[in-house]
Write a structure and sequence with these properties.
It is a single chain. This protein is of the alpha/beta class. Helix content is 35%, strand content 21%. The protein has two domains: 114 residues, 2-Layer Sandwich (Nucleotidyltransferase, domain 5), CATH 3.30.420; 157 residues, 2-Layer Sandwich (Nucleotidyltransferase, domain 5). It is built from nine helices and twelve strands. Strands 3-2-1-4-7 form a five-stranded mixed sheet. Strands 10-9-8-11-12 form a five-stranded mixed sheet, covered by helices on one side. A two-stranded antiparallel ribbon has the order 5-6. It binds zinc ion (ZN). Zinc ion binds next to loops.
C-alpha cells in the first residue's frame, strides 16, 4: 500500500450482519470483517458491538467512517430513530457515541442512498450525470445522485420513492398509508398482497416468484399489478429529475428475467418519449452496501 493512498471504512448495518470494509477510492479492498446482527439488540448492546467491530480495523490508518443503515434517521444529528430489522433500537445517537471513541469523521446515511452512491462510484452508475437507483428488496428504497452528489433531502430522508402513491386508497403499506408503490412492488408488498387475496402468508419472496413462474393465476396478477405500480413510480421519478441512468439493485432483481419485458413496455408507454429515450435501465453491479457506505466519505 502506498502511503499517500487514503483509506475509508464503510459499515453496512444489515438485517443478517453488520459488515465493515476498508477500501480506497478505487474500491480496492484492504480489510473486512463482520458480525452477526441480533434482532434484539438494545441501543447500548448495538453500539458496543459496533465499536468492537470498528476497533478490529484500528491497526490500519483510515480517514473517515461511513455508515449505512435502514431509516428513518437524521443524518445531521447522527441519529437512527428506529429500525425495522433491529426492533429494540430507539433514537440511537450513533454518530456522537462513536465520535467519542474514534477520531475519524463519521458520516451516516440510509442504506438506499448508500446503494445509489456505491453504484455511482463502483457499479453501473459510473459516469452518469443523473443516476437514479431503486433498491428492490424487503421494501422499496431509492437514491438519486446528480453530478456526483447524493441528494439527501431533509436529514437524509430525500427520494423516498417507495412511499409515493401509485393508487389512491390502495393496498395498505408498512408505513401506515395506502397505495404506496412499496405495498405493490417489494418482498413485503408481494407477500401481503398474496395474503390479502388468499389468506396465506408465504415464507419468502422466492416462493412468491416460483408461483409466478409456475403460472399461478393470483400470483401472476399480483406480480403484473406490481410491475405496473413500479412503472408508475419510475414514471413519476423520471418526469421529476430526468435521469440518464436507472439502476435496479436488491434481492428482487434475481427475478429480473420475469420483469424486464413488461417493465420496459410499461415505461415506453407511460413516459414522455424525450425522457424515455434519454435513460438506460440496468440491473446493478452487485456492489456491497458497505462499499456504498464507505463512499459517503469521498
Ligand atoms: Zn408507504
Amino acid at each position: 500500500m502506498k502511503d499517500d493512498q487514503a483509506l475509508y471504512l464503510g459499515i453496512d448495518i444489515g438485517g443478517g450482519s453488520v459488515r465493515g470494509v476498508l477500501i480506497n477510492r478505487e474500491g480496492q479492498l484492504f480489510a473486512e470483517n463482520k458480525i452477526s446482527t441480533n434482532r434484539e439488540w438494545t441501543n447500548s448492546e448495538f453500539l458496543e458491538e459496533l465499536i468492537r467491530l470498528i476497533e478490529t480495523f484500528q491497526n490500519h490508518k483510515f480517514e473517515s467512517i461511513g455508515i449505512g443503515t435502514p431509516g428513518p434517521l437524521s443524518i445531521n444529528e447522527g441519529i437512527i430513530h428506529h429500525s425495522a430489522n433491529l426492533v429494540n433500537l430507539v433514537q440511537v445517537p450513533i454518530v456522537s457515541t462513536l465520535q467519542k471513541k474514534f477520531p475519524q469523521k463519521i458520516l451516516l446515511n440510509n442504506d438506499a442512498n448508500c446503494a445509489a452512491l456505491g453504484e455511482y462510484h463502483f457499479g453501473k452508475g459510473k459516469g452518469s450525470q443523473s443516476l437514479l437507483v431503486l433498491a428492490l428488496g424487503t421494501g422499496l428504497g431509492a437514491g438519486w445522485v446528480q453530478n456526483g452528489n447524493l441528494f439527501n433531502g431533509f436529514n437524509g430522508n430525500g427520494f423516498e420513492l417507495g412511499h409515493v402513491t401509485v393508487q389512491m386508497n390502495g393496498a395498505l403499506c408498512g408505513c401506515g398509508q395506502k397505495g404506496c408503490v412499496e405495498s405493490y412492488f417489494s418482498a413485503r408488498g408481494f407477500l401481503n398482497r398474496y395474503k390479502d387475496h388468499t389468506g396465506v402468508m408465504l415464507d419468502s419472496a422466492k416462493i412468491f416468484f416460483e408461483k409466478v413462474e409456475l403460472g399461478e393465476e393470483i400470483a401472476e396478477k399480483i406480480f403484473s399489478e406490481g410491475l405496473e405500480a413500479l412503472a408508475e413510480s419510475i414514471r413519476a421519478a423520471v418526469h421529476l429529475v430526468n435521469p440518464d441512468k436507472i439502476v435496479l439493485v436488491g434481492g428482487l432483481t434475481q427475478s429480473y428475467h420475469l420483469m424486464e419485458k413488461p417493465l420496459q413496455a410499461h415505461l415506453k408507454n407511460k413516459i414522455f418519449p424525450e425522457l424515455y429515450n434519454h435513460f438506460h435501465l440496468e440491473v446493478g453491479g452487485n456492489i456491497a452496501g458497505s462499499f456504498g457506505a464507505a463512499s459517503l466519505c469521498f
